Amino acid sequence: MKKKLYFLLACITMSTYLWAQTPILGEWITVDDKTGEHLSVVSIYKTEKGTYEGKIITLIGANGDERCVACTGEDYNQPVEGLIIIRNMQLKKEELCGGKVLDPDNGKFYYGKIYLNEEGNLVLRGSLDKAGILGRSQVWLRK
């Protein structure tokens, strides 16, 4: 009887741990909001500091040697594959916010907000203002 109780407690503990992980984490196929074209695969993960980041791990339909020539600072001329484009996000009420999103096409950073829509797809909102009014959204697909 005690073995069954311990097993049950272990299952509850594990399910609580797995449930606590945000479903936003993982690999996502980025989709161009203007053309609908699949562009890349981005991995979203939690850092050792407790913030969340997203890194381009694969460019779709590219030769893999593209560089971020529009970027500035330490990102200038870095390979796009491996580039961290989501930075310093915080998890609040099932969404990531408070950080920045890099657009490798123009090298600019935008305020970012990330959440899941009703279909379970990721919505990334990049905006010029913290309130998210002046910007645009992309819907990404789970890989």
Question: What's the gist of this structure?
Answer:
13% of the residues lie in helices and 45% in strands. Strands 1-2-3-4-5-6-7-8 form an eight-stranded antiparallel β-barrel.
**What is the name of the CATH class?**
Mainly Beta
Radius of gyration: 18 Å
Order of helices and strands: HEEEEEEEE
Number of helices, counting only DSSP H or I runs of 4 residues or more: 1
Helical residues, percent: 10-25%
Please describe the biggest sheet, giving its number of strands, its sense, and whether it closes into a barrel.
8 strands, antiparallel, barrel
Strand order of the largest sheet: 1-2-3-4-5-6-7-8
Q: Within the CATH hierarchy, at the fold level, what is the topology?
A: Lipocalin
Number of folding domains?
1
Separation of termini?
42 Å
How confident overall, as mean pLDDT?
88
Structural class: mainly beta
